[in-house]
Amino acid sequence: MIRIVLFWMLFSLTVVSCTQHIASNKTIIRLKGSDTMLILAQQLADAYMTINPEVSLQIEDGGTATGFTALIQGETDIAMASRLINPQEAQQMAKKYKSIGLSYLVAGDALSIYLNPANQIKTLTMGDLDLIFSGQIDDWLVFTDFPGKIVPVIRPVTSGTFLYFKQHVLKGKDYASYSREMPTTRAVTQLITRDKNAIGYGGFAYGDSVFRAPVNGVFPTPQNVRNDTYPLARYLYFYTIDVPDQQVRRFIDWVIGPAGQRIVKQVGYIPLWD
Amino acid sequence: MLKISLFSFILILLLHTTLWAQFQPQANSDSLKKYLNFLGSDKLQGRGTGSPGLQKAAAFISDHLHRWQLKPAGDNNTYFQHIPMHGSLPLPQSTLELHFEKERIYLNLSDDFLLIKTGVQTFIPKPVSLVFAGYGIVAPEYDYNDYLDLDVSNKIVVVLDGEPWYEDNKGFFKGNDQTLYALAESKIRTAISRGAIGTVIIKNATEQTAFNWQKKKIEYSFEDVSLPAQVTSHLGVLLNPDKNELLFKNAPFSYQQLIQKEKEHKLVNFDLNLKMGFNGVFTHRQFKSQNVVAVKMGMDDSLHDSYVVIGAHYDHLGIGIPVNGDSIYNGVMDNAVGTAVLLELARLFSRNNYAARRSVVFVFFCGEEKGLLGSSYYTDHPYAPLYKTIGMVNVDGLSAMGKFLSIIPLGGNYSGLGRILEELAAENGLKVEQIPSNMVADESFNRSDQVSFAQSGIPSILLLEGFLYETLSRSQALEKNRKWFENIYHTPFDDLKQPLDYNAIRRYTDLLYAYCNRLLNISETPQWNENAPFRYKFFQNKAEKR
User: Fold this and answer.
1) Would you call A167 and B123 a contact, using CB atoms and an 8 Å cutoff?
2) Of A59, B24, B433, B452, which residue is least crowded by CB atoms under 10 Å?
3) What is the gyration radius of the CA atoms in chain A, in angstroms?
4) Domain range spanning residue A124?
5) What confidence tens digit (pLDDT) does each residue in A158-176 have?
6) Do B195 and A9 touch (CB under 8 A)?
7) According to the model, what pLDDT value does residue B171 have?
8) Same structural domain for residues A227 and A121?
9) Prior bond to B291 cis, omega within 30?
10) Which residues in A lie closer than 8 A to residue B380 (C-beta atoms)?
11) Is the domain of A214 the same as that of A124?
12) Does the CB of B231 have a partner CB in chain A at under 8 Å?
């Protein structure tokens, strides 16, 4: 026997049923949120709709915060999140639904530091990243033989990755005032490929065109995430308000299952259950 | 006098005959002993969820089910239902920081504080303010609200363990019995719903037994395991009572003054003029653990598509903090013995010459000790649809103290399963006991896998031996039970060295066999009683054909 049990439904008086049915009797499942998860969600949706033609998945990015807002407003069935729900969001959800939200682990990610391949830097420490992104060091000369004004490239405040990086690397400090803010991870990597003084961050799956720098001497690889050596390992999540209806559950189960996790791997993220 | 004595003698003889007519010695003590000696042995390393020891136990169980030609009812025509799980364990370098105006104090994991939930959700890089929020309870039905006019957004709340208690008002909350509001997770969820970033639970000095720090250290030393789906959580801390005064160093009241106010029922909220940060270092892992599931289909045209689930959890705690040099938490009574009983029932029901009207599903659950994970997963992914599952009988923990003369049906008051059991007991001269005051009905029912089924709308029951014995007085039995829970429960001493009465285990198995046999063959479908809190879910299952 266990010591305590508290049920999911403690703060939930109703099971929230969000999915919609269009005239053709197709079930629509809406996903919105993390830009980091966009490619992953699109590929999961393509594969799922192929085997479940009666379901239509609608994917929209905009950042983790946008996903949570949409979830609370009832505008999405699943919020895609690269960070955990924050206290204000949970409070809003509780006020509206008497539920504080359910999270589902979907994939692992090595949050990667992107550099232009021409940059001489071969490794950075967590301390270096803190100094660079908080603006305490603003020239590459500190690390290399070549001067150059460092251009930190960051995501907007609605991004879960923005917040994750701020909390885990900057320990809550503000980003450098001269940071360049880009709306999507794709835009971050595009800027870095054009500017050899730029440095940014984002999901492992987006870093093909840039150099993904080792952190504390450890490369961002699935293996290094699994063995707990890469310091910026994180999870990617789906959120629902409460226990979702059957169609949404079935989709999430499939994502967590072998077929979904194979796609997680194909996209470049880390499957949690091989 | 002689007549009466003779009559009594005949009656006793008749009762005895009836008893053994019903309890035909179906179960085999040697088989039960064999199962138990394997499942409870050190070889299985305490059967922790996600451990090689539990896999060995799963293989042992499935080998037997296969030998008895029971149909696999797990994934892909196997006996195994593979359940994705996530494990997390805080490392000793995790520190809790108290930021006073001119001083910073670091508290150490295990010695000074424990984490109720571990993992990334507990991360607080920048120190935040602490505020005292009474018991941290909002209970509209008792017109009680610790958060009235209190803004805890982005703060950490400090709350007292337990719940309000009035000597002269036992109807307020539940008097001596605790409600769900007293649970740590309940306090945490309330704090989250109010926008708090963390919850610190401190000892209420009026509840002397609630905090034994050494026991708490052991309890929280095991890996925190969850399913991929989790309710939102945040930093949840249990503070060593030795550190309580520290928290109130800059507060308007000292801890002792606070406790005095609590005794006088004059608790107030206040700022502690202190900030707290948390730097957590954890190991994480993902793995799959297994429920082991088999079915024997019924033979009746009209009833074979209805199912009775008989379940028992086969996991325990695994390897933990050594006590007297022993670090293997074998979990013989919790619940190798229930697993052995279920195996023996599977053997009995699998016999070629046995045919029931309904179908029976045997489920050996993993992850029970981690929060009923296996049974929660099963009810989400059942072999047979929930609306076709008419009842669940759970086996979790026996006393095995001797020949019991009474039984306690946990959850029997909620559904027709209780009445059917009472009928069987009456036919066999067994007394049905009320649940003793130290085993509060709701709380005990909520502590094992039967509640996952009840929550899913399926009438469920846990049958326990009562406290009337042939060779023990009721007070002796109660005292033995109390001592077991105090000294053996969830310790390495719950092993094969403790005295076990295999005849008692066999007798319990026979009783359970008779009960399940009845459920499998009667035409009546057990219904929820009108007052049962789980009734609505049953109707939902039926309506949605879940």
Assistant:
1) yes
2) B24
3) 20
4) 112-231
5) 998 999 999 889 988 999 9
6) no
7) 67
8) yes
9) no
10) 249
11) yes
12) yes
User: Chain A contact for B154, CB < 8 A?
Assistant: yes
On the question of pLDDT at A7 being above 70, the answer is: no
Does the CB of B208 have a partner CB in chain A at under 8 Å? no
End-to-end CA, chain B: 62
First and final C-alpha spacing in chain A: 30
CB contact under 8 A, A168 and B219: no
B183 touches chain A (CB under 8 A): yes
Residues A100 and A119 in one domain: no
Q: Domain total for chain A?
A: 2
Q: Contact B78/B298 with Cβ under 8 angstroms?
A: no
- Tell me the CATH architecture of domain B92-280: 3-Layer(bba) Sandwich (3.50)
- Phi and psi at A211, nearest 5°, equal -95, 125
Amino acid at A118: A
* B446 contact residues in A (CB cutoff 8 A): 5
Confidence of residue A228 (pLDDT cuts 50, 70, 90): confident
Residue B207: the pLDDT is 57
* Residue B176 banded pLDDT, cuts 50, 70, 90: low
**Helices A160-168 and A64-73: angle between axes, nearest 10 degrees:** 120
Largest CA distance in chain A: 65
Cα(A131)–Cα(B6) distance, integer angstroms: 96
Confidence grade of residue B12 (pLDDT, cut at 50, 70, 90): very low
Cα A131 from Cα A139, distance rounded (Å): 11
Evaluated on CA atoms A73, A75, A78, A84, the torsion sign reads: negative
Average pLDDT rounded to a whole number, residues A186-211: 94
Residue B25: what pLDDT?
56
Chosen CATH of B25-87+285-544 out of 3.50.50.60, 3.40.630.10, 3.40.50.1240, 1.10.3210.10:
3.40.630.10
- pLDDT(B5) > 50: no
CATH number of domain containing A47: 3.40.190.10
Decide if A175 is inside a domain: yes
Is B192 in Cβ contact with A90 (below 8 Å)? yes
Residues of A in contact with B197 (CB under 8 A): 87
Query: What whole-number distance in Å separates Cα of residue B292 and Cα of residue B273?
Result: 53
Mutate to test the interface with B, among A1, A106, A111 (most CBs of B within 10 A): A1
Return the residue in B80, B118, B155, B232 with the most chain A beta carbons within 10 A, the one to mutate for interface testing.
B232
Of B180, B193, B380, the CB nearest to A100: B193
B196/A87 Cβ within 8 A: yes
**Distance in Å, alpha carbon of A5 to nearest chain B alpha carbon:** 6
- What number is the average pLDDT over the span B250-278? 91
pLDDT at A14 over 60: no
B483 — contact with chain A (CB < 8 Å)? no
Amino acid at the residue B69: Q
Backbone Cα Rg of chain B: 25
Q: Are A32 and A80 in contact (CB under 8 A)?
A: yes
DSSP secondary structure letters along B197-223: SEEEEE--TT-TTS--HHHHHHHTSSP
Say if residue A76 is in the same domain as residue A96: yes
Same fold for the pair B25-87+285-544 and B92-280: no
Tell me the pLDDT band of B36, cut-offs 50, 70 and 90.
very high
pLDDT of residue A24: 62
Shared domain for A157 and A80, answered yes or no, is: no
Amino acid identity of residue B446, one-letter, is N
At CB < 8 Å, which residues of chain A contact B?
1-11, 15, 84-85, 87-88, 90-91, 94-95, 98, 100-106, 108, 167-168, 171-172, 228, 233-235, 246, 249, 252-253, 256, 272-273
- Of B12-21, B230-239, B344-353, B451-460, give the lowest mean pLDDT range: B12-21
| Claim to verify: residue A213 and residue A116 sit in the same structural domain | yes
